[in-house]
């Protein structure tokens, strides 16, 4: 089956779109490159191509082979906060606008808040049966939720507190353990208020001023992890402000890439892992793009790799 697939299925790269999304996914620990890059069209959710690696050398060589007139058609590029793309985009897409995926920024802030939580939890590690340690260890997901999603009304029995409480009660209990955790949490909420807005609200507010206030809020907390967030937000300030762009009623983000990554993980899982990148690339593009098809002509160039020759087998005689 694999030989037939390799012979008749060879998916070509699609033309670069107006809005280009770039993300990565984990491929295999035993392959030369562990993290390929996936390129997608934001407007129709079509996978443009999958590049073997998102390293500077591989991506630079890939974009260099694309005609400059085609590259000029790209108006917006959305990616995560990787330092690889900034120099590449200045060279190959000088007229495009770089955006930072706002979900990645929120994930960064939540990760740093979680680091703060773990650091404070270790202060109570001498008594792991204490309420402070157990709540910080087992109820931390409440800290990562948006304040708007916290339940104030429904009472449920909590085994740690040994009484019926709401989510808000648990949250207030967690924030009362340490002043640094409280400051980091409310700084996180400040960013969510800045980020979670509609198109109309963006047009009627000064987002640059709001972002500067958020960065100042993180820095003034004097919390180690929050200071790191403030430096990161300052470095990517223009790209974060660019993320408030709507195309066809949708805010530009790497959400379509994240959705495809889930399917890619299932494909690799069902195959018990793959190490042959060209075959994996063809399989992903063939299965995930709607109108991909096979060819009637056999491809002569070989995808299947030559393995190591087997040694002589000698049966032990008793």
Give the secondary structure arrangement, pairings included.
Layout: H1 2-8, E1 19-24, E2 37-41, E3 47-51, H2 56-64, H3 68-71, E4 76-79, H4 85-92, E5 97-100, H5 102-121, H6 131-138, H7 141-144, E6 156-158, E7 163-165, H8 167-175, H9 179-195, H10 199-203, H11 207-220, H12 224-235, H13 237-242, E8 246-247, E9 250-251, H14 255-270, H15 277-288
Parallel strand pairs: 1-4, 4-5
Antiparallel strand pairs: 1-2, 2-3, 6-7, 8-9
Determine the structural class based on helices, strands and strand pairing: alpha/beta
- Report strand %: 5-15%
Helix content: 40-55%
Strand order of the largest sheet: 3-2-1-4-5
This entry's quaternary arrangement is single chain
Question: Roughly how many Å is the radius of gyration?
Answer: 25 Å
From the N-terminal CA to the C-terminal CA, the straight-line distance is 40 Å
Instruction: Give the count of structural domains.
Output: 2
Major sheet: size, sense and barrel closure?
5 strands, mixed
Low-pLDDT ranges: none
Shape designation: globular
- Tell how many strands the DSSP assignment holds: 9
What's the tally of helices?
Answer: 15
* Average predicted confidence as pLDDT: 90
Describe this structure in words.
- By secondary structure, the protein is of the alpha/beta class.
- It has helices at 2-8, 56-64, 68-71, 85-92, 102-121, 131-138, 141-144, 167-175, 179-195, 199-203, 207-220, 224-235, 237-242, 255-270, 277-288; strands spanning 19-24, 37-41, 47-51, 76-79, 97-100, 156-158, 163-165, 246-247, 250-251.
- The chain folds into two domains: 2-101 and 251-288, Ribonuclease H-like superfamily/Ribonuclease H (Nucleotidyltransferase, domain 5, 2-Layer Sandwich); 103-242.
- β2 and β3 form a beta hairpin.
- It is globular.
- α11 packs antiparallel against α12 (224-235).
- It starts with a helix and ends in a 30-residue tail after the last helix.
- The protein has a five-stranded mixed beta sheet with strand order 3-2-1-4-5, sandwiched between helices. A two-stranded antiparallel sheet has the order 6-7.
- It has 15 helices and nine strands.
- The longest helix is centred in the middle third of the chain and has 20 residues, at 102-121.
